[in-house]
Amino acid sequence: MTNGILNGPGAGLLLSILRNGQARTRAELVQLTGLSRSTVSQRIDALLIRRLILPAEDAAPSGGRPATAFLFNRRANVALAADLGVTHARLAVTDLGGEILADRNADLSIDRGPESTLGWVLDTFRELLAVSGHTLHDVCGAGIGLPGPVDHESGQAINPPVMPGWDRFPVRDWMSARIGVPVLVDNDVNIMALGEHWAMRPGVDHLMFVKVGTGIGCGIIAGGQLHRGDRGAAGDIGHIRVPTMDQMQCRCGNIGCLEAVAGGGALAARLRDLGLETADTRDVVRLVKEGNTKAVHLVRQSGREIGGVLASVVSFFNPAAVVIGGDLAEAGDHLLAGVREMVYGRSLPLATQRLSIRASELGDRAGVIGAAVTVIEHFLAPEVVDQIIAV
Length: 391
Ligand SMILES: [Zn+2]
Fold this sequence. Notes:
By secondary structure, the chain is of the alpha/beta class. It has three domains: 11-73, Orthogonal Bundle (Arc Repressor Mutant, subunit A), CATH 1.10.10.10; 78-193 and 368-379, ATPase, nucleotide binding domain (Nucleotidyltransferase, domain 5); 202-360, Nucleotidyltransferase, domain 5, CATH 3.30.420. 40% of the residues lie in helices and 18% in strands. The protein has 14 helices and 14 strands. It has a five-stranded mixed β-sheet with strand order 5-4-3-6-9, sandwiched between helices. β10 (207-212) and β11 form a beta hairpin. α1 crosses α14. Zinc ion (ZN) binds next to α7. Zinc ion binds at residues 239, 250, 252, 254, 257, 259-260.
């Protein structure tokens, strides 16, 4: 048995070339990789046996001649994806193209603790697999997004402020021991940024995804890659101090954090003080949609506060796109208007010349698609495919 390191590009690289459409045929693969025709054929056969590729329809075998053109088979395996929020969760089974085959939205309190929450996730994954006509045997991995700081390498949440009982719980190991496939754990905003970038803005190399929900956070795509920083704490803009008369105490223990002033939880509390029934961010959104002027005013002001912080971040990072998502983004243009007003007004002209500030196009699916994407990209990485297919 040989491998790609000794013999030039392996099956994994051939698969990624077919997947991104750089080549379709044996001849094109030979030309592109410099491999011999027999080596290409050997690796193509192995990919066909593993069903990661299929003969292209217009080049199906006929008259005893083997097919010459091939397509990536996005139905070869499925990915499991979970986007866990503070109060609700979205789970899905997707194909290798990130298309959702079955999904479930549910109210779920993360403060139930890790074993109870993950037990529910596991049961729901099994149900969704059955609904989509698959079994655990078809699964290539699971991606899980958590609403707090995550050490990506160990797959654990670290001192999450709104997740009692989760600190350093081995989420990755707990889940992979039960489903027997790789499990990848990340911060919810990071997976949203990945999902939006991958599905909607693959050509945008520098992008910020700002999640505005109960809390506020930011996922960063730099040079086309997710930027986590040294320990995974990059983009934590919710705890940047904003100049305000409001001496609001933040859940992190500090005073005057952006999140404590402009997050959905803060707006709901302020509307309660005004005598309105608002338990959480979704109630704030409901009031805005009903045209409540107090709620509209507060959401627009929240957009300005967030925009004030983003103006500095935009000058520092110079993204091409700022995408606003999360529950409060459902309030529509009022939040976006406040953000735009501050960013375009305060950042340098060169930084805003081509900058687009828009609402997330994936909406509440950004997290679950991003969680699937982490799994798919991990599974289809050339070195991983080479390990599965050693020819
Ligand atoms: Zn804070």
